[in-house]
């Protein structure tokens, strides 16, 4: 039987612990195939790092969404983000994460943060944990090693493309108008209007 898993980024009291798929064969026989659901909110940050579940890291912050939106104490969120940042740096030094993977993960984390905060007073504090300091340090390292300007520009564009793709997908899932998403691409990622439109054409619905 094929393996499958359902991942819930958020949960409610109605979130199921398992999912059952029924396979019906040509002879009419039906077989139920059950799998445990992965509920991200139940996973600790230590478990995520231990099991190298890197794709889960950007979505970990979603468990703090209500607190962040309310503008209340975000110190627990900052502590968890700091933990992930330090662990990702450690894994990069150990050769388990490449520079590009590290930057992509940090960029995706900040994209989720800016989506959740939507410009409220907590945004700057949270973004700074994963933000410019780490990426800037990497750029300085590449410059010291003599990597050509074109390569650095390519890396920057790659990070922006990844952030833009996620921001567009999240915005469209929330039902935002194209013009609103275009403004977010320009404000939060630093794209020009032409670059933002190109990303919309590439990753989202066609502009009207």
Task: Please provide a written account of the structure.
This protein is mainly alpha-helical and 208 residues long. Among the domains are: 32 residues, no CATH class; 105 residues. It is 59% helix and 9% strand. Strands 1-4 form a two-stranded parallel sheet. A two-stranded antiparallel ribbon has the order 2-3. α4 packs parallel to α6, α8 packs antiparallel against α9 and α9 packs across α10.
N→C terminal distance: 44 Å
Judged by helices, strands and strand pairing, the structural class is mainly alpha
Please state the average pLDDT score.
80
Q: Into which percent range does the helicity of residues fall?
A: 55-70%
Low-pLDDT runs of 5+ residues are 132-140, 146-152
Count the helices. How many? 10
Main sheet overview: 2 strands, parallel
Strand content: 5-15%
User: What is the H/E order?
Assistant: EEEEHHHHHHHHHH
Brief synopsis:
By secondary structure, this protein is mainly alpha-helical. The chain contains ten helices and four strands; from the N terminus they run ββββαααααααααα.
Name some characteristics of this structure:
about 210 residues, two-stranded antiparallel ribbon, about 10% strand
Summarize the topology.
Layout: E1 7-8, E2 18-24, E3 30-36, E4 38-39, H1 45-50, H2 57-60, H3 65-70, H4 75-93, H5 99-117, H6 123-130, H7 132-144, H8 149-173, H9 178-189, H10 193-203
Parallel strand pairs: 1-4
Antiparallel strand pairs: 2-3
Helix pairs in contact: 4-6, 5-6, 5-8, 8-9, 8-10, 9-10
């Amino acid at each position: 039987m094929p393996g499958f898993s359902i991942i819930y980024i958020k949960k409610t009291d109605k979130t199921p612990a398992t999912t059952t798929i029924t396979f019906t064969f040509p002879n009419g026989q039906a077989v139920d195939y059950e799998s445990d659901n992965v509920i991200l909110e139940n996973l600790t940050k230590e478990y995520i790092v231990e099991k190298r579940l890197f794709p889960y890291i950007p979505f970990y912050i979603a468990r703090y969404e209500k607190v962040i939106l309310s503008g209340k104490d975000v110190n627990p969120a900052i502590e968890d983000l700091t933990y992930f940042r330090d662990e990702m740096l450690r894994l990069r030094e150990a050769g388990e994460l490449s520079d590009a993977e590290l930057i992509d993960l940090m960029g995706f984390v900040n994209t989720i943060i800016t989506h959740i905060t939507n410009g409220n007073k907590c945004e700057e504090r949270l973004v700074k944990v994963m933000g410019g300091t780490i990426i800037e340090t990497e750029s300085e390292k590449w410059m010291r090693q003599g990597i050509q300007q074109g390569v650095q520009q390519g890396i920057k564009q790659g990070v922006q493309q990844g952030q833009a793709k996620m921001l567009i997908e999240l915005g469209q899932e929330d039902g935002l108008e194209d013009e609103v998403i275009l403004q977010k691409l320009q404000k939060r990622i630093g794209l020009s209007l032409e670059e933002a439109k190109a990303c919309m054409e590439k990753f989202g619905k066609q502009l009207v």
